[in-house]
Design brief:
- With about 190 residues, this protein is of the alpha+beta class.
- Helix content is about 40%, strand content about 15%.
- It folds into 2 domains: about 1-45, no CATH class; about 45-185, no CATH class.
- The strands form 3 sheets. A 3-stranded mixed beta sheet has the order 3-4-5. A two-stranded antiparallel sheet has the order 1-2.
- Strand 1 (about 30) and strand 2 (about 35) form a beta hairpin.
- The termini are far apart.
- One of its GO terms (biological process) is methylation.
- One of its GO terms (molecular function) is methyltransferase activity.
- It comes from Herbiconiux gentiana.
Length: about 190
Amino acid sequence: MPPSLPFLLDRTDLHLAELHAARLDGDLVGVGDRFSPADIAGTVDLRGARELRALSLLPRLPVGLVVERRTAAWLHGAWAAPPGPLELCVRSDHRVRVVPDVAWSVRQAVLRPDELILVRGVLSTTPLRTALDLLRLPPDDRYDGRHRSAVITLLLMQTSGRERAAAALHRSPHLPHKQRALDRLAALSLR
């Protein structure tokens, strides 16, 4: 029986040129900055695809940080490619020492346990919390059609997504940019 390839390959497995050549030949599929054999990537369901994306993020993440915003949207399958830099946060009730790096941006956030999900060792905001964070982005952060599409996708991942999002916003009296999020939520057309 021939040896099987790992779920994800990177520069430690093959030269970068060989990985990209195999991707161009259709043998590999890009998953973040790593590569997956096409027969594996082509047969996974939505949950499996999220797990592959989480595995591709895991080696790059500092311990104790949470994947959020556009990076979480990519993890959940609502954003086309992982953003650079990765968008991460430190929970306000945790103390984490993070060495600054151009590979990520880090902010502090108040997160409840029900707003977090663990996917293959990667701690991320849930689809609902991710949608709320994207809705609350400031105007100078270029909230555009890609963001609206991601929010719609994230809200459609759950039953009554729009209603749950509106209820979560109304439940939080001191949430920054709450009115902006409510206005953007009302402007979305969910079918």
